[in-house]
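Dear H.,

Thanks for agreeing to be a second pair of eyes. The structure we're designing against is below in token form, covering all 330 positions.
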């Protein structure tokens, strides 16, 4: 997928999320005024967060797709981590508001009416959000957008919240135990609080360039798959994500008699290979030349400059790729 198509998909997905979010909020706030239900209020409060967070997501996607410039040499992609963090913070704020309202109603009591109407409205909203959340997460993975994935997870949470509210209100109707309404709202809020925490945690991890284990396994697996016998060692592997882009760099030891052109062709081959599994990656390789004490690690059987036969083998595992040159760790 080319960059322009990728960016267009992001914009369409987040605009759809914003449009649906506004309609869901209006429906839920209407249901709250009709019923007076604390549980429905909790669902409506989360929809307010959805609208605010999606507006932030729209701005972050607009900013993240801007090309690199003199003031942002690596582009503007990190705004997506900030956006996900803000969304997580807003979710936490909504959860705390719901918890406060729930405790207040448990202590002082609550009066509800027309719960059957509220059930129909909230049930329909939950059904719509279930499909929207799935769509956003799918498009987020397709476009490698943390913002869309975060928004999709939030919408999924909103959907599960609505389902929980519907079940709770049905129990209120069946049992006549009105205090179930704020109790259910409290339980819903705790679940929302956990979702917000996870988003904030993921955002902080991204901004701090925390190692993504799955991404590391993808890179390491591809390098091991395409390894050539004259690639003596890869070390000091580093990578980080910014928006939908992955920046990768490492050192590669090749025979000292390779020309600049040969070394460049190796780098080009590696970059094209990594693009197969990471379509929006950029690769920079520092070429190191071998020395006499490297021969014992080298698989290049036809080398005419060998000073000693190969006698030591090692695995190209994650620890090796992240670590020091092989000759300094043995």
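And this is the sequence the design step returned. I haven't edited it by hand at all.
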């Amino acid at each position: 997928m080319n960059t322009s198509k990728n960016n267009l998909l992001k914009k369409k997905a987040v605009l759809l999320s914003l449009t649906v979010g506004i309609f869901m909020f209006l429906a839920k706030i209407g249901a709250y005024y009709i019923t007076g239900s604390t549980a429905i209020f909790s669902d409506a409060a989360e929809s307010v967060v959805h609208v605010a967070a999606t507006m932030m997501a729209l701005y972050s996607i607009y900013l993240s797709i801007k090309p690199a410039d003199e003031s942002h040499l690596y582009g503007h992609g990190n705004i997506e981590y900030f956006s996900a963090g803000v969304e997580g913070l807003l979710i936490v704020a909504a959860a705390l508001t719901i918890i406060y309202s729930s405790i207040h109603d448990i202590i002082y009591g609550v009066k509800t009416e027309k719960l059957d109407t509220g059930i129909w409205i909230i049930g329909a909203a939950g059904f719509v959000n279930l499909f929207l959340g799935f769509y956003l997460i799918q498009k987020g993975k397709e476009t490698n957008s943390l913002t869309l994935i975060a928004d999709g997870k939030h919408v999924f949470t909103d959907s599960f919240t609505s389902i929980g509210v519907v079940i709770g209100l049905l129990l209120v109707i069946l049992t006549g135990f009105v205090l179930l309404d704020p109790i259910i709202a409290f339980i819903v809020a705790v679940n929302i609080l956990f979702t917000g925490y996870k988003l904030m945690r993921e955002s902080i991890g991204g901004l701090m360039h925390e190692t993504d284990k799955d991404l590391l396994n993808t890179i390491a697996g591809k390098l091991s798959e395409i390894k050539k016998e004259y690639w003596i060692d890869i070390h000091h592997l580093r990578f980080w994500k910014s928006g939908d882009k992955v920046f990768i760099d490492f050192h590669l030891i090749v025979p000292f008699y390779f020309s600049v052109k040969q070394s460049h062709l190796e780098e080009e081959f590696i970059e094209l290979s990594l693009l197969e599994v990471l379509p929006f990656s950029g690769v920079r390789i520092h070429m190191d030349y071998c020395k006499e004490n490297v021969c014992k690690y080298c698989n290049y059987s036809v080398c005419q400059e060998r000073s000693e036969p190969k006698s030591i083998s090692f695995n190209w595992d994650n620890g090796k790729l992240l670590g020091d040159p092989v000759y300094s760790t043995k």
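Two observations from my side: The CA atoms of residues 106 and 182 lie 6 Å apart. Residues 3-207 form a domain with the Alpha-lytic protease prodomain-like fold (CATH 1.20.1510.10).

Warmly,
E.
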